[in-house]
Every structure is written in C-alpha cells, then in structure tokens.
Design brief:
alpha+beta; Butyryl-Coa Dehydrogenase, subunit A, domain 1; Butyryl-CoA Dehydrogenase, subunit A, domain 2; Butyryl-CoA Dehydrogenase, subunit A, domain 3; 4 domains; FAD; flavoprotein; Acyl-CoA dehydrogenase NM domain-like protein; Acyl-CoA_dehydrogenase
C-alpha cells in the first residue's frame, strides 16, 4: 500500500519537517489510524454512550469497543505507542506515533480501541523497561494482548503528592512478602471487571537519609485481600466509566516480594521513566481534541439558523479574530508536541525533560482555553451534552493535574533555568571587557556596558 501525503486529510496538519522524517511504514500506519478513527470511532460515539447507559453495564467495557479492539488488533493497530527501541514495539518512533495519537485524540475512547490509552501506555512502557522476563510474562503480555487492564497508583489524599517524597503508604518488607497499609486516590476503578493489577508506589524505607530511595514500586492484584475501594470518584462531575477512578484503602495487603519492580527503593527511577512518555501522550491526544473542537466552532460559524442580529456567527469581527487566534494556538501546540517527541527520539527521555515539561505545562492550558472559546461560540448549548465540548474541556483540565500539577513542572523548569544564570553572567562580563577594549581602541569614553551593572 503506497500512501500519498499530498492533499491527504490524514497529513494536512503535519509540518513539512515532520513529513520528511516519516518512514513508509509509518505513513501507512498514520493513514490507517486516520481511516479507523474517522469511520469506526467518531460516528460510534452515541452508540458507546447508549451501551454504557444500559442497566448493570455502566462499569463494563461497551460491546462496541470490545469488538473494535479485536478488529484493531487484527489490523495491526495495537500498542502503536511503544517506542521502537523495545523489542515488543510495533516499530514506530515517538515522532511517528505522535502523528497517530493526535488523530486518536479526536475521539476520547479511540485510543482504547488500539490499546494506546492511559494509563495502559505508561504502564506497558514501565513493564517493558523495568521488568524481568518472568514479570513480563505475568503482566506485560496480557496487557499488550488486551486481555487485562491496569492502573497506576501514586497519589494520596493525606499528603501533597505533587512532592512525591511525601508519599507515605507503608510497604513493609518481611521475609518473602510485602505488607501494605495506607490510602490512595486515583487509579482505575475496581468496579471494572477487566482491571487486573495496580502498579503501586509506597514507602518501604522511611528512615533512609536519601528521600529518593525510600520508596518502592510493587504490583498488586486488583482484588487482593485487604484492598478496598472506598468509592468511585468523579472528575468535575464525570465518572469516566467504564475505567473511572477510585479511592482506596490498603489494610495489611500482602503480595509476594517477587512483585517488586526493579528492586526496593527504586520507585522514583521507575516513576520518572514512566511519567515522561505518559505526559507527552496526553498532550498528543489533546492536539487532536483541539482540532475537533475547532471544527465544531467553524461549523457553528456558518449555521444559517444561528443569526444573532441578522448576521452569521462567523461574520462578527470578534469571532473572525477568535477563529484566527485558535488556529495559531493549535498549530503552535502541535509544533511543541512534535518537537518534544523528536527530541526524545534523538536524545532520550532524560535529555528531553525540558521539552516534556514544556508540553505538559502549555498544551493542557491552551487546550482548555481553545475548547472554552469553542463552547462560548455555541452559547448555552455549548455547555450541554449536545456537543462533546464539555467532556473535552474536562479532560484537558484534568490533564493540567494528571502526572503532576502545572506548578510542580514550572518549578522544575525554573530551577533548571536558574542554574544557567552563571553562564550568562560570564557572557555579559565578556561583553563588558570587550566594550572596554573597543573604547580604548577608538578613543570613546568608557561607560558600563548596557543595563547590567557588574
């Protein structure tokens, strides 16, 4: 199958510098993902909602999604996110996958049909990166096969989890077992029968003088004895069934020591390895959500029955400017995300820390702003279930907190930037020295260089 990118809607928004880096197999995959989302997912959104509304089925995966997952797997559209340096990967680079993920973002659950949804993407990459062959057989294989789902459990209700050194859930290692006690917030709902495991972060060595080595990551079966879901929790009124979120109590939950990932005290190493890709995957999908919201706004602009003061909504200067601003903001965020994906491909996740943080801070903020503007153009109807806009906005607002709040990422970026100040001071001192030399050479009165007083 040869795919032309010329005038092809699957590639219309992809910048030329990215197109030049796409390999033939990736071009074919992007086309397949586009066709899949446009024909199988977006038109089926009302059907999925109807299936979730059936009595007693609210927390089970809708039959339509189950069917689509089987079809997507058969067509080779499963686990596309896993980077090509893993042996289990289907072979895409982060940059190539970013083009796919934007398309997936057009429908909230489209990524789920391709096993490319949160938290599965981060969890699968974590297990592929850090687990032993035996652990991969137990947990990675069923997740990649799509026969089980998982959750990542880090946040706690009793501490400021934005500073993860505060995490206090107790993991006491005794002999051949890990004994777990404490409370957790978030992590997919136990009400979903597909949920098989929690990847849990807790404190196993509270007196260690190094706070970054006090914590351990362990896999806990979702129905382990002593693990209780206190309640499902909503996100700004949405329960996000069938995955959802929960509040949990661990009361002397016992798991084998073999369930520890990588080793005791290495949870932060694992968390950083997991959260980087997860953060950027959210941002990739948000670009797709913004595009869909923008299309809805354009449609609203030309609706002939919507004519306040006798003019189409799109004929008002304020809306013309609004449309222009949103277009440029979406395109800017796409460039940001694609640059981050390319940086990770070339330099690795650690070196790409800044661009990942940049995406995580800016993209959800811009997405909430863009979607809010689209809702405004719909007036009162924009706040209702008549469009997907309110759910899109809620997801974007959630991502501002998911995987770490904005302020934590800004703080990290700011601290990193402050470390560069000394180098800039040296540069400006060199300017001043050279300025003195030039004044002497040309007989010009010397004054302090620029506005900087050294």
């Amino acid at each position: 199958m040869t795919v032309s990118m010329d005038n092809n809607p699957a590639f219309n928004r992809i910048p030329p510098w990215v197109k030049a880096k796409l390999r033939p197999n990736a071009i074919e995959t992007i086309q397949k993902v586009h066709d899949w989302v446009e024909t199988e997912c977006v038109p089926a959104e009302p059907v999925v909602k109807a299936q979730l509304a059936v009595a007693g089925k609210h927390w089970t995966t809708p039959p339509l999604i189950e069917e689509l997952r089987k079809k997507a797997k058969a067509q080779g559209l499963f686990n596309l996110f896993l980077p090509n340096h893993f042996k289990e990967s289907p072979g895409l680079t982060n940059l190539e996958y970013a083009c796919c993920a934007e398309i997936m973002g057009r429908c909230y659950w489209a990524a789920q049909t391709m096993n490319c949804h949160a938290p599965e993407t981060g969890n699968i990459e974590l297990l592929a990166k850090y687990c032993t062959p035996e652990q991969k057989e137990r947990w990675l294989k069923p997740l990649m096969d799509g026969t089980m789902s998982s959750a990542y459990s880090m946040t706690e209700p009793d501490v400021a989890s934005s500073d993860a050194t505060n995490i206090g859930l107790s993991m006491r290692i005794e002999g051949s077992e890990v004994i777990i006690n404490g409370r957790k917030l978030y992590g997919n709902s136990q009400a979903n029968p597909d949920l098989g495991i929690y990847i849990l972060m807790g404190c196993s060595d509270p007196t260690n003088p190094d706070p970054w080595k006090r914590h351990t990551t362990v896999v806990v079966p979702s129905r382990a004895k002593g693990l209780t879901m206190v309640r499902n929790i909503t996100i700004m009124g949405y329960d996000h069934a069938p995955e959802g979120h929960g509040e949990y109590v661990y009361d002397n939950v016992r798991v084998p020591i073999e369930n520890i990932i990588l080793g005791p005290g290495r949870a932060f190493e694992i968390a950083q390895g997991r959260l980087g890709p997860g953060r950027i995957h959210h941002c990739m999908r948000l670009v797709g959500q913004m595009e869909r919201a923008y299309e809805l706004a354009l449609i609203r602009c030309i609706e002939p029955q919507k004519k306040p003061r006798g003019k189409l909504i799109g004929e008002f200067d304020s809306n013309i400017e609004r449309i222009a601003s949103m277009r440029m903001e979406i395109d800017s965020m796409r460039q940001l995300v694609l640059n981050a994906a390319d940086t990770i491909d070339i330099l690795g996740g650690k070196a790409g820390r800044y661009v990942i943080a940049q995406c995580k801070i800016l993209v959800p903020n811009v997405a909430t702003k863009v979607i809010d503007e689209c809702m405004q153009m719909y007036g009162g109807q924009g706040l209702t279930q008549h469009t997907a806009l309110p759910e899109m906005w809620t997801y974007a607002r959630f991502v501002r907190v998911a995987d770490g709040p904005d302020s934590a990422h800004r703080h990290q970026v700011g601290r990193d930037q402050m470390k560069t100040a000394g180098g800039f001071k040296e540069r400006h001192l060199a300017y001043q020295k050279r300025h003195q030399e030039l004044c002497k050479k040309w007989g010009v009165e010397y004054v302090k260089y620029g506005a900087t007083d050294f």
